[in-house]
Amino acid sequence: MYKHITLIITAIIILIFNSVSAQNYDILTELKNHKTKVYFSEGNDERAKIIAERCDNAINYFNGIINFTPDVTLLILNQEDWWKFTNFPVYGMPHYNDNKTLVIATEDNDFWKSFIPPLDKLPQELQNKIRNAYTNQDGNLSMMAFFDLLALHELGHAFHFQADLQMQRFWMGELFANIFLHTYIAENEPEYLPALTVFPEMVVAGGTTEYKYTSLTDLEERYDEIGQRYPKNYGWYQSRWHSAAKNIYNEGGKEVFVRLWTALKEKRKKLSDSELADFLTNNVHQSVADVFVKWNEIN
């Protein structure tokens, strides 16, 4: 079983940690009557409700098309509580403590802010998109609107973990979660597509000069290292996968996700690179195979 560390921008990193300092959720507030078990830091009632309801809706939607429901516990934590329930060193990075317990931040933070670029260095059209998608109620730029959606990216990981899909590659696990996320938003909450898609466009447009790793080979060989030591570099990979997921959905619709789910569930054998490319082309969709065979052309 893969150990995932997910950024969303951002996403979604998953690690299986050896221990956490707290073994129960007594100091958190429980939000009942949801499909996930939900616990949150005091004073975040509305935020917890929004995240839980979106997860409920996504679980219902995907259960309707693939007939599967995972068992998930949501921990929605402020900075003080974060360190009591997870050893993950970056506040704001959504991740799993195990394949069922999803940890999400409650508040804007330095990690999210690190992705805000100098707007004057970007094309005017992209500047306008960023301001329209990510200006908060105080009139400041905030990436919270994007990172909030990454709860669904992480939920996608729970689906493939608990259904025991053979993901073939680390990058396939992340692409799967992004296809899951984009498909749900496009089909059910299309008004949030700008918040979902502008962030990856912004990160990719910034180029690769500041990143140490950029190839899928790097990612496969150094998956945990990149996630833990180079989280912004990992965010660049996620942005590439987000862009790919958008293209995949636009070309093939929700049926691509269903075919991907079925294909990965049925194919238990580990495939070579050439076998994987052919398998994705013939059993899923050419656009999915292209993420692998045309990695350097994705934008």
Would you give an account of this structure?
By secondary structure, the protein is α/β, with parallel strands linked by helices. The protein has one domain (7-266): Neutral Protease, domain 2, CATH 1.10.390. 54% of the residues lie in helices and 8% in strands. It has helices at 45-66, 79-85, 110-113, 124-134, 144-162, 170-188, 193-205, 216-221, 223-229, 231-252, 254-266, 273-283, 286-293; strands at 7-8, 11-12, 29-31, 37-40, 73-77, 95-96, 101-105. Helix 4 (124-134) packs across helix 7 (193-205) and helix 9 packs across helix 10 (231-252). The longest helix has 22 residues, at 45-66. It is globular, with a radius of gyration of 18 Å.
Search tags:
single chain; 299 residues; alpha/beta; Neutral Protease, domain 2; five-stranded mixed beta sheet; two-stranded antiparallel sheet; 13 helices; disordered N terminus
Estimate the helix proportion, in percent.
Answer: 40-55%
What is the N-to-C succession of helices and strands? EEEEHEHEEHHHHHHHHHHH
Q: Tell me the structural class.
A: alpha/beta
Strand-residue fraction? 5-15%
- Side by side, the strands of the main sheet go 3-4-5-7-6
- The CATH class turns out to be Mainly Alpha
What's the N-to-C terminus distance? Answer: 30 Å
